[in-house]
């Protein structure tokens, strides 16, 4: 276990004004020098291949010049069009400044170009990737002796791996029936379809002598047999990658069920329970259920504890299913709940320590609500979890991740005998056998690993960093509650937020006071977005940058009608238009808890919105 230390957020980033650039440059130069020495030290008796004369040759100099000119063009494009993630003026998508150790780890390893598909191509970085997998396991409360995890490109790939596990595991009992029927002779197909994941893994352990034959009779060999595996259930707020996963996995989009969300944009548990009961009455099994902790449009935290409670309740009646936690966005936030020994703190103790340790500074902020706390606590009961380091892990793209509760699950998806170890190591010889991807950048693993080494995955590490973003979002929401009406050049506007944020995302919308036309309100918010984004021109000329999103009836049912109603839109108007456009601010910056900065920040932000509203008014 790493030695505990206090993390200073100010030292973790290059900084909005490049305040830490001297340290960054000195350190990256050291890494480059070390790499140069490494090249020279490999058989130092070998003579240089590129001589001084060749380096000074005209075409060599011309080539160097072309390199410089090309990079200058590239740099110009990047400087003039890139989004300023590093600045607290950026309040848009899930993007932010990235950690110095993550950048340095990535660049330092990239020079060696390791490929984590196989151990022999990544003798340094494959172990780092699996260490990160164990970091994920500890973060999520899994048994470190049983769990397994790894880094993948992004949350979409991790989600696809999640459904891959669920699909293959669920088909094993039927394969056993075909190959070793005596082991399940007392069980009906309905009972086979509702075995618990641990029971299926125990059953698989009994047939290792005919494992390849078993897998040939499972979904791997037969493909998905219609009706056998059942339905895959997701909330309406799911990421679109689940739709892709349903198609790619062969489950089929007709077998992906969307559960409506409530007015807080969390999966409605009552609807979920009714759906499972209705399916059971028709003898249609449930393959798996996804709970989302940190939805990408609202930052909502599903009642994951209630999903787990439902599974336990149904298992008493012989019905079970796989459960996956999609925490691509919210996964790292679980660090806030862990003490220095990585133990999940009791609720009342947590609330005290958050303020005592300065994770949340403002006394008036009461976070987390009990339902959010309960959801994060319960993820230790999931079968698999998606977590993205390149979101709340503050590391460079592309770095997604997945962790599974029981590494025996690897047998269901691997293409070689699971975990054949490289001789003399504790690392699998071919990591690509157990994951969707093949060749993959070892530099990514090094970047995530370095970040975890410097910033512990507990309250005093990542908890302090992410806590700052949560506090800022709570402050932003609080400011919005003080401003219900704005008057601009004689025109009054109403302002409302979608919900009080569960996490660090604040959605809000404007309407003309007295306006009941939803299309007119949607156009107003689109106009505001256009003036708050790249649409208005180079972002360097924009004082604050904000994102937006659209809530439609097809995706969310009538849940958006509540916000529309508070802004003066009648329900019948919502039912006619069935689409609501809102501004979306994902507040990942850690800098706005500093009173000397925050003091004028929100006034400046509000004044920026007023200027944009004035521009819209004057254009009419």
Helix content: 40-55%
Strands across the major sheet, in which order?
2-8-7-6-5-3-4
Total number of helices: 23
Q: Note poorly predicted spans.
A: none
Largest sheet: 7 strands, mixed
Query: What value does the Rg take, in angstroms?
Result: 26 Å
- Averaged pLDDT: 93
Which structural class matches the secondary elements?
alpha/beta
First-to-last CA distance: 63 Å
Taken as a percent bin, the fraction of beta residues is 5-15%
Question: What this model shows, in words?
Answer:
This protein is of the alpha/beta class. The protein has a domain at 483-619. The protein contains 23 helices and 13 strands. The chain has helices spanning 21-41, 52-56, 58-81, 100-110, 125-139, 155-179, 189-193, 197-205, 211-217, 219-222, 241-248, 269-281, 304-315, 347-356, 370-378, 410-413, 442-454, 462-482, 518-530, 553-556, 561-566, 571-577, 595-619, and strands at 90-91, 148-152, 231-235, 256-259, 286-292, 322-327, 384-387, 400-404, 485-488, 491-497, 505-512, 545-552, 579-586. The strands form two sheets. A seven-stranded mixed sheet has the order 2-8-7-6-5-3-4, sandwiched between helices. Strand 10 (491-497) and strand 11 (505-512) form a beta hairpin. The N and C termini lie far apart (63 Å). The model has no long low-confidence stretch (mean pLDDT 93).
């Amino acid at each position: 276990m790493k030695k505990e230390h206090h993390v200073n957020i100010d030292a973790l980033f290059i900084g909005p004004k490049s305040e830490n650039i001297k340290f960054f440059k000195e350190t990256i130069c050291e890494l480059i020098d070390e790499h140069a020495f490494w090249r020279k030290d490999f058989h130092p008796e070998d003579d240089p291949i590129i001589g001084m004369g060749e380096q000074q040759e005209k075409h060599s100099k011309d080539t160097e010049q072309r390199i410089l000119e090309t990079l200058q063009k590239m740099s110009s494009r990047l400087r003039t069009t890139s989004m300023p993630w590093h600045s607290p003026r950026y309040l848009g998508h899930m993007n932010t400044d990235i950690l110095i150790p993550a950048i340095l780890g990535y660049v330092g390893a990239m020079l060696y170009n390791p490929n984590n598909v196989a151990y022999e191509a990544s003798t340094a970085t494959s172990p780092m990737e699996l260490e990160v997998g164990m970091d994920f396991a500890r973060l999520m409360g899994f048994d470190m002796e049983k769990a397994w995890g790894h880094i993948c490109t992004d949350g979409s790939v991790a989600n696809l791996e999640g459904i891959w596990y669920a699909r293959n595991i669920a088909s094993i009992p039927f394969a056993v029936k075909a190959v070793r029927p005596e082991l399940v002779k007392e069980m009906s197909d309905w009972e086979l379809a509702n075995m618990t994941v641990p029971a299926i893994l125990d059953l698989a352990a009994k047939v290792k002598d005919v494992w390849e034959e078993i897998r040939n009779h499972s979904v791997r060999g037969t493909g998905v047999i219609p009706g056998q595996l059942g339905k895959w259930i997701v909330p309406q707020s799911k990421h679109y990658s689940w739709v892709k996963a349903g198609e790619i996995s062969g489950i089929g989009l007709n077998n992906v069920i969307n559960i409506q969300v409530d007015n807080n944009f969390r999966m409605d548990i009552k609807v979920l329970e009714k759906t499972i009961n209705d399916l059971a009455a028709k003898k249609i099994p449930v393959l798996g259920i996804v709970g989302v902790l940190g939805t990408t449009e609202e930052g909502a935290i599903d009642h994951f504890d209630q999903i787990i409670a439902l599974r336990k309740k149904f298992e008493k009646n012989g019905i079970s299913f796989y459960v996956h936690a999609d925490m691509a966005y919210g996964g790292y936030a679980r660090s806030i709940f862990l003490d220095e020994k990585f133990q999940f703190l009791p609720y009342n103790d947590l609330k005290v320590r958050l303020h005592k340790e300065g994770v949340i500074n403002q006394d008036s902020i009461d976070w987390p609500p009990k339902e959010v706390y309960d959801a994060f606590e319960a993820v230790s009961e999931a079968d698999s979890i998606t977590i993205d380091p390149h979101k709340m892990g503050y590391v460079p793209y592309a770095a997604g991740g997945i962790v599974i509760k029981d590494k025996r699950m690897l047998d269901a998806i691997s293409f070689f005998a699971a975990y054949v170890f490289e001789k003399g190591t504790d690392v699998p010889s071919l990591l690509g056998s157990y994951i969707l991807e093949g060749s993959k950048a070892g530099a990514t693993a090094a970047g995530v690993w370095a970040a975890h080494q410097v910033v512990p995955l507990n309250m005093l590490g990542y908890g302090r960093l992410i806590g700052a973003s949560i506090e800022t979002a709570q402050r932003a929401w609080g400011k919005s509650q003080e401003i219900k009406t704005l008057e601009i050049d004689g025109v009054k506007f109403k302002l409302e937020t979608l919900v009080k944020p569960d996490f660090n995302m604040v959605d809000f919308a404007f309407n003309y006071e007295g306006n009941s036309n939803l299309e007119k309100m949607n156009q107003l918010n689109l106009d505001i977005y256009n003036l708050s984004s790249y649409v208005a021109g180079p972002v360097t000329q924009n004082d604050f940058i904000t994102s937006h999103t659209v809530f439609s009836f097809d995706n969310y049912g009538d849940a958006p009608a509540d916000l529309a109603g508070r802004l003066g839109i009648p329900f019948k108007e919502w039912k006619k238009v069935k689409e609501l456009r809102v501004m979306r601010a994902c507040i990942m910056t850690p800098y706005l808890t500093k009173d000397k900065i925050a003091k004028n920040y929100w006034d400046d932000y509000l004044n920026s919105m007023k200027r944009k509203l004035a521009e819209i008014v004057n254009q009419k």
